[in-house]
Amino acid sequence: MDRTFLVGPSLILAACIALITTGCHARTGNTYRVIIDPNFSAENQELARSAVATWRSALGDELNIWSVEVGECHASGSPGRELCIHASTGAWLTSQFSYNVPGVHDYALTWRDVDNDSADTYVAVDLISGQSLQRSVTHELGHAMGLQHTQPGTLMFWFMNADEALVPTCVDKLQWHQLRGMNTTDDSSCPATTQVTYFH
Ligand SMILES: [Zn+2]
Which of 64, 139, 174, 186 sits CB 3.0–4.6 Å from 31 for a disulfide? Predict the structure, then answer.
């Protein structure tokens, strides 16, 4: 199981500080079902849907999210490629991993289960809202689909402030494709020189 933490200083928006890998690579696919925790407020459910929509927009028909629904999700141990977006708290995130840095709050994390192609993303709804919540969900969905951290200016950069990407960039699309055996952004508007630089 890969554990990915999304954290950041209180005055700056979402930041993902560490990717701890247990030696396995997540299996990646193109077809997913997304389940949103009913504990999200109506507004936050909509932000989560918007996060999913940015990935759909970036990848078009290549990404088949056949369902986005609100409901209970227990991805671990269940079959299929399920991406679960859970409402959580900063306290829960910290206690789960005993990880803290002075002045830094945990915001979100993803557990990716390499055995059954499912992933659980937890978002600290007591710490973030609005655009930063949507940004965090979008970033974590990237992890849930197999992406790792990349250079500044990309959605998958671990630390995001107001200048960082809110939606998948050319680099993020290239990484998504490379994971699936294609060395292309599949987007004519992206520079041919686009490269993925991993940033841990
Ligand atoms: Zn991250």
Answer: 64
Is 120 part of a structural domain of the chain? yes
**In angstroms, what is the span from residue 38 Cα to ligand 1's centroid?**
24
Number of domains in the chain: 1
Question: What separation in Å is there between the alpha carbon of 140 and the centre of ligand 1?
Answer: 6
Q: Are 56 and 65 in contact (CB under 8 A)?
A: yes
Domain limits at 34? 2-179
Tell me whether residue 190 is in a domain: no
Give the Å distance between the CA of 173 and the centre of ligand 1.
16
CATH code, 106: 3.40.390.10
Instruction: Give the single-character DSSP code of 150.
Output: B
Please state, in angstroms and rounded to a whole number, the distance separating the CA atoms of residues 147 and 167.
Answer: 14
Query: Domain for residue 42, yes or no?
Result: yes
Query: What tokens does 146 get?
Result: 């197999």
Report residues of the chain scoring pLDDT below 70. Answer: 1-27, 75-80, 96-106, 114-116, 160-162, 200
98 alpha-carbon distance from chain centroid: 21
Q: Return the C-alpha torsion angle 185, 161, 4, 176, nearest 10.
A: 0
131/53 Cα distance (integer angstroms): 14
> Is the pTM here over 0.85, yes or no?
no
